[in-house]
Amino acid sequence: MTPMNMRPSVIFGVIVAALVLLQIDGRTQIPAFDILVRNGRVIDGSGNPWFVADVAIRGDMIAAVAPRLEPGAARVIDARGLVVAPGFIDVHSHSEAREDGQDIIGNPAAENNVRQGVTTIFASPDGGGSVEVGAYLAKVSAARPAINVGTFIGHGSVRGLVIGQANRPATPEELQRMRDVVRKGMQEGAFGLSTGLFYVPGNYAPLEEVIELARIAGEFGGIHQSHMRDETSRVLDSVSETIAIGEHGGLPTQVTHHKIIGKSNWGRSVETLRMIDEARARGVDATIDQYPYTASSTSIQGGLVPQWAQEGGRDRLLERLKDEGSRQKILSEVSKAIETDRGAGDPGNVVLAACNWDPSLAGKSLAQVLRDRSRPATVDQAADLVLEIVQRGGCSAIYHAISEDDLVRIMKHPVTMIASDASPGIPTFGKDVPHPRAYGTFARVLGVYVREKGVLTLEDAVRKMSALPAQRMGIVDRGVLRPGLKADLVVFDPATVTDRATFERPHQYAEGISAVLVNGQVVLEAGKLTGARGGKTLRKTESEKK
Ligand SMILES: [Zn+2]
After folding, report:
1. Is 365 left (phi over 0), alpha (psi -120 to 50) or beta?
2. I want to staple 175 with a disulfide (CB 3.0 to 4.6 A). Which of 14, 170, 208, 457 is the partner?
3. Cα–Cα distances in angstroms (integers) from residue 307 to residues 197, 205, 303, 346, 448, in the given order
4. Ligand 1 centre from 125 Cα, in Å?
5. How far apart are CA 120 and CA 143, in angstroms?
6. From start to end of 296-367, where are the E strands?
7. Looking at per-residue confidence, does 11 or 128 come out higher?
8. How far is the centre of ligand 1, averaged over its atoms, from the C-alpha of 467 (Å)?
């Protein structure tokens, strides 16, 4: 690399490193570095093998990565025998502002993220979150988060704002208004358009509408990230739709939390991955993210109730459930979903995670609730129970309907990155029985899929958590451990790093992560939170300028 084609951030890093050396030579009293992480095995995020080096930090930047750096008066973190890697980046985080406060604003310390080594998250996936991107980021900033936060703008929220919960295509005027909302969100710093075509109201949008709005995100250098219309029997159609959005919208496109739901569909990841490979071969920038669990989680209503029954919102759904004819139709579709879809044929596979109207149900499967009531644990009885749950206010649930073979196959694919689908403060620590991904995702990949099962090398796993998601989101100053970049770092023990959160006992933090730095501030040291809040809000518009 010559000075002519160096990135400004790299040039700045070289200048910083030069100044640092000058200070050592000049025997100044000012410490050359603020922090020195010594003797670690550096895994830089590129996928290259580890090497032993010190990592020096000055201010919020990595100043040097080299063996035997002079510590001066710097604060020293001993990393002998440990891995030093770029902080992990979570591109699917439900940290959008929530009414219940289970988000980054309500939980700015983000302990469940920090204890997995996560230093940057992206909010508003699945088509959700606020369309007021600037206002959201201002609120996050005011909450002084411990980690960096960027956001998508969600298609479902945009459609909800302009069209409401109606199941019909947009008029030309509505489409223009949606374009304007997406454009404003991108101007205010969103990193792309997220879609939740599985959910209401995103589900009511035809492909053409999504392409039109994705095109706007692409004009700003953003990406499209999709919770696909179907992850079960029509998963191939959905992957092809996700590819089409990228191909015709002219922007990178990503299958988010890629999984194959329902026993009769298991194995189809062979075909979905081949479709991604074929798309890439013809020039479509299609990628994948994934969480390392064989169960998914969403609301009972979202997961099992047909979308047509939800048109018009909750009141209309309740009216339909009171009408005997439509109730029977909904009941039979819910039965089918338990039989072949998220229930994988057994009401024991659907476990309630949180029910505000009866907290005692959390942790019980539909089969267990039926047995508690001396009812047979059949699929039809479970469907009837689901409708009762919806009528009484709903629950979130966990669905054990994914195969380990598909999970591993998807994880191994070179374009797959790791993302949690959880959030800071979701769940509130100790409350309910939520999906363990909130506590364990990144540590689980390192402990189970690198160390125990050997599915990934350590270097490749780190790449899928740092450089790959940074590249995907277009962040040029993070995701790689290199002088001149922001000092987001994680130090962990590859021999002990582990997720402790289980489906039965999810409220357990990951272990084996000993230090986490965010923008040069030590957020976790010797396994303890320091109280530092080094996080920044990230804007696509700003990262473009660097
Ligand atoms: Zn989703």
Report:
1. beta
2. 170
3. 10, 12, 10, 22, 36
4. 7
5. 15
6. 296-299, 350-354
7. 128
8. 23
Q: What is the pLDDT of residues 340-361, one digit of tens each?
A: 999 999 999 999 999 999 999 9
Backbone phi, psi, residue 456, to 5°:
-125, 155
What is the identity of the amino acid at 258?
Answer: H
Q: How many whole angstroms separate alpha carbon 410 and alpha carbon 256? A: 12
Entry field: residues in the chain: 546
pLDDT tens column, 299-352: 999 999 999 999 999 999 999 999 999 999 999 999 999 999 999 999 999 999
* Ligand 1 center–CA 297 separation, angstroms: 8
Any residues with CB less than 8 A from the CB of 533 and at least 6 apart, and which? 108, 109, 144, 145, 146, 521, 523
pLDDT in tens, 169-182: 999 999 999 999 99
């002079």: which residue's tokens?
70
How many angstroms separate the alpha carbon of residue 109 from the centre of ligand 1? 24
189, 158 Cβ separation under 8 angstroms: no
Distance from the alpha carbon of residue 13 to the mean position of ligand 1, in angstroms: 38
> Ligand 1 centroid to 194 CA: how many Å?
10
Tell me which amino acid residue 343 is: G
